[in-house]
Amino acid sequence: MNAAAIERRIASYIRAWNAQDFDAMAAHFTEPCVFVVAGGTTVMRQRQELAAFLRVNFEALNARGFGHTEIGAITSRQLGPTLALAEVDDIRRFHRDGQLMETLEVQYTLRVDPSAPEGLSIVSALWCEPGWRERRL
User: Fold this and answer.
1) Which pLDDT band holds residue 107 (cuts at 50, 70, 90)?
2) How many domains does the chain have?
3) Could you identify which of 33, 65, 116, 129 might form a hypothetical disulfide with 95, taking C-beta atoms 3.0 to 4.6 angstroms apart as the criterion?
């Protein structure tokens, strides 16, 4: 496991995201996997559930005029011998006309998975509002 492999795995996921290839997106994840978004936490036991979850989310995005996503730098940290954290601090979603739709941040937890491309699968995705690190409780 290294930063370059993590970056390639996340970039591959974003390519599948932009293609709206739900099965390819789901293939990047472990079974089960977890999504944490502002609206709640969803645990999906199988990739088919994840593909359906993503399809529903894309219906809403597409209704708002979604065109594509671009990402900035990825910061990777090793959490343990088989776990890593990939922080993507600059995710920009654009409308079909090229105008910025929204900016967000996502933290992905990845696990070593010898059967997966790059030897890594995504375990969880945590959506964050930009600037969340500066907010103290």
Assistant:
1) very high
2) 1
3) 65
Nearest to 108 by CA among 134, 81, 74: 74
End-to-end CA distance of the chain: 34
137 domain residue, yes or no: no
Q: How far apart are CA 88 and CA 102, in angstroms?
A: 14
Q: Which residue range is the domain that position 72 belongs to?
A: 3-106+114-132
Q: Is the pLDDT of residue 137 over 90?
A: no
What whole-number distance in Å separates Cα of residue 89 and Cα of residue 60?
A: 23
| pLDDT score of 33 more than 90 | yes
Report the phi/psi class of residue 90: left, alpha or beta, with left for phi > 0 and alpha for psi in -120 to 50. beta
Q: Is the pLDDT of residue 128 over 90?
A: no
* Cβ–Cβ < 8 Å for 36, 107: no
The strand pair at 83-95 and 74-80 is best described as antiparallel
Whether 55 is covered by a domain: the verdict is: yes
Could you tell me the CATH number of the domain that includes residue 27? 3.10.450.50
pLDDT band at 38 (very low <50, low <70, confident <90, very high): confident
